[in-house]
């Protein structure tokens, strides 16, 4: 790696977040920049072209509803988890959300740690009642009421949340019941050479072949086309 230069000029990205280029260097025939965002002190290494276009993002800037950030996590790798997290933030901090009056407008909040998607993702498997298979198939939902009965200013956090069935969740909140179609845990896996394997337990199959169960469920749902060369379809 050959370092080219350093600069102390303050620049701004498209979201008007100030940053410095700590160094610019070449690696494997490409030019990269190491940038430091002044508001959050976070550091990123990106292609110089991204910096030139001011497209470099501060992952720790509170750009989600003005209170939350993505952190060091990729939405595309955790679509289901991100949807749950984003909806939770929206309900609590976006007055335009149709459920805000039940949540944020009713003193429901999200703990400081979970205002960062990266940390929410880390805590998810630790939440009481979490089951990987049931989570990705949609059989269980995140709930903040069961542990906080008779408490007005409820909060979403690792200590106060649990996973419950859809029926139990809807019975504890005053929201229209939303019927979600669960994905069957059985599927057909097609390898790169076209061989088919009938899978009756996705998490076990994922572990055996060094795959991620969440991405297999997304393939079955049609959200993604393949995962590590494997394709999947429903086992009717």
Automatic annotation (TrEMBL):
Residue ranges of domain DNA endonuclease I-HmuI-like NUMOD-like in the record: 188-233
Ranges annotated as spanning the membrane: none
Domain of life: Bacteria
Record-linked InterPro entries: I-HmuI_NUMOD-like, WH-like_DNA-bd_sf
Protein name: DNA endonuclease I-HmuI-like NUMOD-like domain-containing protein
Organism: Caldifermentibacillus hisashii
């Amino acid at each position: 790696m050959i370092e080219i230069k350093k600069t102390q000029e303050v620049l701004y990205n498209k979201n008007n977040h100030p940053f410095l280029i700590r160094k610019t260097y070449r690696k494997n025939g490409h030019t990269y920049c190491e940038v430091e965002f002044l508001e959050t002190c976070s550091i990123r290494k990106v292609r110089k072209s991204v910096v030139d276009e001011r497209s470099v993002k501060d992952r720790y800037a509170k750009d989600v509803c003005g209170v939350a950030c993505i952190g060091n996590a990729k939405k595309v790798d955790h679509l289901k988890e991100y949807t749950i997290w984003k909806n939770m933030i929206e309900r609590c901090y976006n007055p335009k959300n149709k459920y805000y009056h039940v949540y944020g407008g009713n003193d429901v909040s999200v703990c400081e740690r979970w205002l960062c998607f990266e940390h929410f993702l880390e805590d998810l498997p630790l939440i009481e009642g979490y089951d990987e298979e049931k989570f990705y198939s949609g059989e269980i939902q995140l709930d903040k009421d069961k542990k906080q009965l008779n408490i007005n200013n409820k909060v979403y956090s690792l200590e106060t949340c649990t996973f419950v069935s859809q029926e139990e969740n809807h019975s504890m909140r005053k929201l229209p019941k939303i019927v979600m179609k669960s994905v069957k845990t059985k599927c057909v896996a097609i390898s790169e050479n076209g061989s088919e394997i009938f899978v009756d337990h996705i998490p076990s199959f994922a572990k055996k072949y060094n795959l991620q169960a969440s991405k297999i469920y997304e393939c079955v749902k049609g959200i993604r086309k393949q995962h590590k060369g494997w394709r999947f379809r429903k086992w009717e």
